[in-house]
Amino acid sequence: MAREKIPRQAMPEQKPEIRRHNFNEVPFGYSPELAKIEASRCITCKKPKCVEGCPVEIDIPGFIGLIKEGQFEAAARKIKETNALPAVCGRVCPQEEQCEALCVIGVKDQPVAIGRLERFAADWEREKGTVEIPEIPPATGKRVAVVGSGPAGLVVAGDLALMGHKVTIFEALHKPGGVLVYGIPEFRLPKAIVLSEVEYVKSLGVELLCDMVIGRVITVDELLEEEGFDAVFLGTGAGLPYFMNIPGENLNGVYSANEYLTRSNLMKAYSFPEADTPMIESKRVAVLGGGNVAMDSARTALRLGAEEVNIVYRRSRNEMPARIEEVHHAEEEGVIFNLLTNPVRFIGDEEGWVKGTELLKMELGEPDASGRRRPVPISGSEYIMDVDTVVVAIGNGANPLVPQTTEGLDTNKWGNILAHPVTGMTSKPRVWAGGDIVIGAATVILAMGAGKGAARSIHNYLINGGPWNWKEEPRTEKAEA
Length: 481
Description:
The protein is built from 17 helices and 16 strands. The chain is an alpha/beta fold. Helix 4 (60-68) packs across helix 7 and helix 5 packs across helix 7.
């Protein structure tokens, strides 16, 4: 079959009527045969644009070519030259907006399934037990503290360890992984996968300390001045949930998506009483928002036994920020989409529990600052939706604890740490930051890209010294890694 005639290979997955009742991962992944067929669609461009779209700089044609030849372990190692978390990226990164969006094949056909192939290679290496630890260079004698073990922190730690620095990660929760463990459901990202990726980073010589709330147990200044760290990277994420500030928001049964998902993902409420966290029992659920977190919340509600789950989103499907794949899976599983609809108040019963929400129909007006058409209320279109649970998934703000306890660390009006967009340098010398704490709630891969840039800058600064150019263009020279 001619290369251009080979269709993009679909991943086998659980049927919707089965998967909506369990927390097992939805796609099964490629078989070796499917992976080789999909890899054969790549034309190995001389100047691959797909690499330009990868925040962690993976040699995409290189690893796909190895899969095409059946060299699966070599493909995984090729990816790990620049990405320590390939099994995570292959599952949750929006490849359709990044590497795959620039695939030449995608001009006339569907792009090569880069993310699915990355997942395949990573899974093959892990399942075969052939994970190889790269050679660690001689120690530089420099010590780096990484605050937060989410995607940005893990990348910084792994990259710096491979440059010869001694790295310690400080994680506030009792398990590492950040948003990968508390925010993304098991059916989309199994926690065993996250643990495996964390263990790989630890195998590079990284020390990991959990239950360490920086800003409470110890401050950033104490890490630098008393504990002897030469540099600190802040990757504390965006863990402060936003609410709508409408009447009834304090009723019982109204949750932030952070709490709702954390109870299920990190604390395993779905396995109660084996786990200590009681399950939220619901019959009619409304999830407010149109992003990936809203889809995760809605699909979780189904699996927790809800009879009806509604997405309430004030714009149309075209403006919905969630990945197309996540919206598709939610629809297949029976989630109801109430588009161009916005809540104006929540209604409670005599015992203080939510029993309904008043909704208002919207229409699209002129584009706003985000470039999306602004939703405009339709007067007189109010109606009541009966619910017993509401999940507010309209975004998160920066975790305020570290900025509040760190003198000389500048933030913007939303509380995000100000940092150089490439190097991650902040207003405080020897302190870098990246990921959601800087740019606001975004994607895993953007946080990882920020971590990679910060690691390069930290290494350069520790080896070559100042000046501290946190507002200027980054230095062009690179230290030998």
